[in-house]
Amino acid sequence: MYSQTSLDCDTLLKWCKLLNYDFFRLYSQHLILYSPTDLLRKNKIKTQKTNLPQFRKSLYTIEIIEFVLGLLESGEKSRQQIIQEYNIPKTTLYKWINKYPSNGT
Q1: Do the Cβ atoms of 37 and 85 come closer than 8 Å?
Q2: Between 45 and 88, where is the model more confident?
């Protein structure tokens, strides 16, 4: 299995259970980080207004937050580059900066 170019999802799920590690998380985080949000905004379907509350699920895991803040801290990317390339809202990025201080301080 190690030398194969791909694995069936059922096989990968068995390995996840056996090793107690979520291999699917690697791919889902990649999809979330590099998803084309501009297309979603343009093709957004209008929803009907209801009296029920609507909840927004947080799309960003701690690993994604640490990755983005690591890019910022190392100087690899500026705040504006992160906002533009990853389509992270400006307020969200600034909240992360305040909430998760760097390890050096």
Answers
A1: no
A2: 88
List, by residue range, all CATH 1.10.10 domains of the chain.
60-105
**Does pTM top 0.70 for this prediction?**
no
SS (H, E, C) 46-95: CCCCCCCCCCCCCCCCHHHHHHHHHHHHHCCCCHHHHHHHHCCCHHHHHH
Phi-psi region of 4 (alpha: psi -120 to 50; beta: other; left: phi over 0): beta
Mean pLDDT over each residue of the chain, to the nearest integer: 78
Can you tell me the distance from the alpha carbon of 24 to that of 2, in angstroms, rounded to the nearest whole number? Answer: 17
104 vs 68: which has the higher pLDDT = 68
Query: Does pLDDT of 12 surpass 80?
Result: yes
Q: Is domain 60-105 annotated with CATH 1.10.10?
A: yes
Which residues, including other chains, have CB under 8 Å from residue 93's CB and lie 6 or more apart? 68, 79, 82, 83
pLDDT (0 to 100) of residue 105: 43
Token reading at 57:
């699920």
